[in-house]
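W.,

You were right to be curious about this one. When I first looked at the sequence I had no strong expectations either way, so I just let the prediction run and decided to look at it fresh. Below is the sequence, 285 residues in total, followed by the output.
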Amino acid sequence: MDYNLCDINTVERLLKKHGCKFSKALGQNFIVDGTVCPRMAEELCADESTGVLEIGAGIGVLTKELCKTAKKVVSIELDKRLYPLLSETLGDYDNFELVEGDVMKLDLNALIKEKFSGCEKIKVCANLPYYITSPIIMLLLEEKLPIDEIEVMVQKEAAQRLCTEMGTRQAGAVTAAVNYYGSAEQLFEVSRSAFLPSPKVDSEVIKITLYGKPKYNVESEKKFFRLVRAAFAQRRKTLVNSLSSTLNISKQSLSIALYELGLDENIRAEKLTMNDFVKLYEYLK
C-alpha cells in the first residue's frame, strides 16, 4: 500500500497500530513536510547504478524516496519497535533492505561489501538525530568507507560548523575532519515545522563530497586527529594552553613550534587553517 508518510494523521495511525511512540531518547522527529525528502533524494542524484546506505529509517519517509531512484537502499535502524511498521510502509519496494542495529557498533565496511555488490557507487543519506551528529559524521569519515558522498540533514548550527572554512570562529574538530577527507556544501534549510514532533531549532541539509585520494598527507592520521581534538578541547584557551594540558607537551616547546611556523604565541585553535595544523603536527612529530 502506498502510504502518505508525510500526513500527520497517517503517521499517528501507523504508530498507534504498531504500538510505537516517538522516542526523545533516540532523537526521533519524523518529517511531515512532503517537499523535503523528494528534494533530498533529488540532490543525492542516485540512479540505477547507485547503492544508498541510510542511517535511521524512521517510518520510511526518506527511504521511500530513495528507493524510487537508487539501485538498492539499505537502512540501518536501531529502534526495534519500528521494524514491523517499516515492513508495512516499504513492503512494495524490492530494492529495500533493513539492517537491525546501532550504526556506531556495526562493521560498516563489511556491511557495504556484503549488501552493495553490483553497485558502481555508494552514497550515504540520513536525517541524523541531533545528539549524535558529530560522532556519526566522524565515523563515516574515519572508517574510510568505499563511499562517494554523504548527504545528511542536521541541526542548522551543526551544518554551519561542518561546512565552514578552517580558520574561522565556527570551526571545530569535526570541521577539520570534513576538510581533511572531502569538501562540504550547504544545500537547503528545513524549518522546525517540517517535523513531528517539532524540535526547538531549524535544520539544514548538507552534502560532503569525499576526495578520491587524500588531499593532505600525514604519517599517522590517528595521531594527527588526536592533536586536532586536543586543540579544540578547550576552545577558550590559547592553543599553547589547550595542547599543554591535554597532550602533556611543555608550553615552551609549543611556543617555539608556533614561532618557527610563523604563528602568534597566543593564537587559538579556531584561527588555524588545515595547512597550519598539518605543519604543526609535522613539527611536533
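Here's what jumped out at me. Strands lie at 30-31, 50-55, 72-77, 96-100, 121-127, 149-155, 182-190, 195-196, 203-210. And, maybe more interesting for your project: The chain has twelve helices and nine strands.

Coffee later to discuss?

I.
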